[in-house]
Design a protein that fits this description.
This protein folds into 2 domains: about 150 residues, no CATH class; about 120 residues, Jelly Rolls, CATH 2.60.120. About 20% of the residues lie in helices and about 25% in strands. The strands form 4 sheets. A 6-stranded mixed sheet has the order 7-13-12-15-10-9. The chain has a 4-stranded mixed sheet with strand order 1-2-6-5. Strand 9 and strand 10 form a beta hairpin. The longest helix is centred in the N-terminal third of the chain and has 14 residues.
């Protein structure tokens, strides 16, 4: 019987992938993140990682993960997203890593994980709140948790964590042309029409109902006729607003209604003012804007 064997070359084919420059990955990242995790995860608690960083959280820090989907990119289809949510309901992880600015795989092919995994993201945003941002990682804590104040943790860390504007310390929630193609719909057609008035050419101001982020998860935009190809931007601030304060979506035109699951966007949960602004480029004849659960 013949035997087939393989001889592996120990010299890497691409030297450029080993190792990253020291100034790119600060040596304090692992120690600080480890300190944060061991402060807020009690014995038996698990972590859910939506930023695709198994190398950091499982391999280096040896943290118990809440689901078998150690890399959330394995849960793109609706049925696998539902499976992840079922595991999250069962395991009830205390902490969620919602996003990462650079390490892991929080954003690929121009789509952030909050958009790609829209059902999972909405579940997290409905049941968790932001805790802190450290080394580019945005951490959420379960709503019923009462964690120690972040200020108590600061003396133990080399980099001071951020605790303000946390819902906006992630990527723009850009849906691209998804509203033209997605077959998902709101669970209910009951909703509320937002009062509006022109703000400036191409922009309308919308009166945001109290508690909108918790009561409504879909934005519905209706045209007076049919939309032409356009890009829409929803934000709570004009002028100096960055793209991280925006929910963005586009259409190729030809339809009279667009729906976007804004509840999957951290920005939607971070908006606090009574006025939102919806801009369209080029200007569109918008008949009504509704919020739907």
């Amino acid at each position: 019987m013949a035997r087939v064997g393989y001889v592996l070359d120990t010299d890497p084919l691409f030297h450029s992938v080993f190792p990253a420059p020291a100034k790119t990955i600060d040596a304090s990242l692992v120690s600080d993140v480890g300190t944060i995790m061991h402060t807020y995860l009690r014995p038996g608690d698990r972590l859910f990682d939506l930023s695709n960083n198994p190398g950091l959280f499982w391999y280096l820090l040896r943290l118990p993960l809440a689901t078998r989907y150690y890399h959330v990119s394995m849960a793109i289809r609706e049925n696998t997203q539902r499976d992840v949510i079922a595991e999250l309901r069962r395991e009830r992880p205390a902490l969620v890593v919602f996003s990462s600015d650079w390490i892991g795989l929080p954003f690929w092919d121009g789509i952030s994980n909050a958009v790609r995994h829209y059902d999972i993201s909405r579940y997290v945003l409905d049941h968790y709140r932001p805790l802190l941002w450290s080394h580019g990682l945005l951490l959420f804590v379960r709503n019923d948790e009462r964690p120690p104040p972040v200020a108590d943790l600061v003396p133990k860390l080399r980099e001071r964590p951020k605790t303000t504007e946390l819902y906006f310390r992630t990527f723009s929630c850009d849906w691209g042309y998804a509203p033209d193609f997605l077959s998902i719909h709101p669970p209910s057609e009951a909703g509320v029409t937002m009062s509006s008035h022109p703000e400036s050419p191409g922009i309308i101001a919308l009166d945001r109902p109290a508690g909108a982020s918790s009561r409504y998860g879909w934005l519905e935009v209706e045209s007076a006729s049919k939309f032409s190809a356009a890009r829409f931007v929803l934000t709570d601030a004009l002028g100096g607003a960055t793209d991280r304060r925006q929910v963005v979506f586009s259409t190729r035109g030809g339809t009279s209604m667009l729906r976007v699951e804004v509840g999957s966007c951290s920005q939607w949960h971070g908006f606090r003012g009574r006025t939102l602004y919806l801009g369209a480029d080029p200007t569109q004849a918008i008949r009504a804007v509704r919020l739907v659960p």
